[in-house]
Write a structure and sequence with these properties.
The complex is a heterodimer of chains A (76) and B (382).
Chain A (H helix, E strand, L loop, with lengths): L1 E5 L3 H13 L5 E4 L10 E6 L6 H7 L5 E4 L7
Antiparallel strand pairs in A: 1-3, 1-4, 2-3
Chain B lengths: L6 E2 L11 H14 L9 H20 L8 E4 L2 H12 L4 E6 L4 H12 L3 E6 L9 H7 L4 E7 L11 H10 L4 E4 L18 E5 L11 E5 L37 H17 L1 H20 L4 E5 L4 E6 L4 H12 L1 E2 L1 E3 L4 H7 L6 E5 L6 H17 L2
Parallel strand pairs in B: 1-11, 3-4, 3-5, 5-6, 6-7
Antiparallel strand pairs in B: 2-8, 7-8, 9-10, 10-13, 12-13
Helix pairs in contact in B: 1-7, 2-7, 3-4, 8-11, 9-11
Classes of the chains: A alpha+beta (76), B alpha/beta (382).
Chain lengths: 76, 382
């Protein structure tokens, strides 16, 4: 299942992007789905991997992210 | 003799010419990206935001700052000082600064003093412009809220013992603000080694970027209160300005084309290496200082940076500057250099000095021609 990660700032989104690239994690950046409460207009969508919490890994690198399941979000 | 091409010795005011990569970087941004960073979700806006992010990361790396979110882009160093000083100082704070500071620091401090917000303590320096650590140490008070020091002088090029001053401040947990307007791109700066809490820089001097872009780097957890408020592209549903960095201290559309120029300038600096730049500029400075010292009637005021002031007995700095330009095509800066305090310290107020400030684009031949020009002007002195 896909998940949507939201952040407080554009800076945090791009810091997360840098981490995802460095760790070869596929992702997409998209406008934050309207119904998700977020400080920032951009969000990151990625595939959820069993037993791996990307938000926890990001937090270890000082990047705060909130996770939302894809099913409640955009359909595209 | 005047040559077709001017000798540009005013790099301390702004560097010229800029590396071609800087012009290319700015043009490429305007032609290929151009969008507003972090404001819209589309891919061009995202590319603009990535460029801003990468530039923040490059600035953080240059100054040894762990978190690039703590790099705030400003219009120039003066803007950065105003954010730091007006945002950090509370009612009743005692502030220590030095008698070598530029007006960009002194004027905001004098304004805060005249509003009754701070008590200002300006410590004297030696007649060559150096801060005495014992004098500084004796001025700390229980209510000292900040120490502000210019890293390198825009008048003489003398460099302050930043790491030792930083250590004194750090021991007392007093925020330390450093003016790196003249030293960023000219000397290595490490905010950790220097115990620097706030570092203000400009992009258009030795970093070789365009005018209109500078920044404030903040180490540690104590952050200035915002100086101004507005749109950030974040927390849009809230009417109150967000308090997280870097949005806390930035509002409104940033100077993206300036940031793109700064990014290219930092890449240029990385390519040619700061060490090689320092070596070349030190060689230029030594040759200039030696040449000027050898001329009768010339008094030289110099330090470690490629920024050298001089006077000629019997002539005013403005006359010397005029003749250097008219007859020799040499661009200098004369007068007080926005630093009347520094000139009082050096004993060169109120007339000031002639300043030659050199950069990466200058050559030994230009230095020799400038020394010859000064010698010829000195010979004409009454």
């Amino acid at each position: 299942m896909k998940q949507i990660l939201v952040f407080e700032s554009t800076h945090a989104v791009l810091k997360a992007e840098k981490w995802l690239k460095a760790n070869s994690v596929p992702y997409e950046i998209l406008p934050t789905p309207r119904h998700i409460s977020s400080d920032c207009g951009m969000a990151i969508r990625l595939e959820q991997t069993e037993g791996v919490s990307i938000p926890d890994l990001l937090l270890q690198s000082g990047i705060k992210a909130a996770m939302h399941p894809q099913e409640n979000c955009c359909e595209f | 003799m005047k040559h077709d091409r001017p000798i540009y010795f005013d790099h301390a005011a702004t560097s010229w010419p800029k590396p071609p990569e800087v012009l290319d970087g700015m043009r490429r941004f305007l032609e290929e990206i151009g969008a507003n960073p972090g404001r819209s979700g589309h891919s061009m806006s995202l590319d603009a935001a990535r460029m801003v992010f990468e530039t923040r990361e490059a600035v953080a790396e240059l100054f040894g700052l762990d978190d690039s979110a703590q790099v705030v882009f400003t219009a120039n160093a003066t803007h950065a000082f105003n954010i730091a000083l007006q945002g950090m100082l509370q009612q009743g704070s005692h502030v220590i600064t030095t008698a070598m500071e530029h007006n960009s620091v002194i004027r905001p401090l004098r304004e805060l003093e005249s509003r009754g917000v701070i008590e200002l303590d300006i410590i004297p320096c030696t007649n060559t412009g150096t801060v005495c650590l014992d004098t500084l140490d004796a001025r700390f008070r229980p209510n000292t809220g900040l120490v502000a020091v210019q890293h390198g002088s825009n008048v003489t090029g003398c460099v302050q013992p930043i790491e030792k001053i930083g250590a004194l401040c750090s021991r007392r947990r007093i925020p330390f603000l450093v003016d790196a307007a003249q030293t960023a791109g000219c000397l290595p700066i490490d905010m950790k080694a220097g115990h620097i809490d706030l570092l203000a820089f400009t992009g258009h001097k030795a970093l070789l970027g365009p005018t209109g872009i500078g920044g404030l780097c903040i180490a540690g957890s104590r952050l200035p209160e915002p100086l101004y408020f507005g749109g950030t592209g974040s927390a849009s549903e809230q009417e109150k300005h967000p308090l997280f960095m870097p949005d806390r201290l930035e509002a409104g559309t940033p100077n993206t084309v300036g940031i793109a120029g700064l990014q290219a300038a930092l890449e240029h600096l990385r390519r040619i290496s700061l060490a090689a730049t320092v070596e070349k500029e030190q060689a230029l400075r030594s040759r200039l200082v030696d040449g000027l010292h050898a001329i009768d009637g010339v008094r030289v005021y110099s330090g470690e940076l490629p920024v050298v002031s001089f006077t000629i007995d019997g002539l005013t700095p403005d006359d010397i500057g005029y003749v250097l330009d008219r007859d020799y095509g040499i661009m200098s800066r004369v007068g007080l250099h926005c630093s009347p305090l520094a000139h009082r310290t050096l004993g060169t107020a109120p007339a000031g000095t002639v300043r030659f400030s050199m950069g990466y684009s200058n050559t030994m031949d230009q230095v020799d021609r400038a020394v010859q020009a000064v010698a010829e002007i000195a010979e004409r002195s009454p």
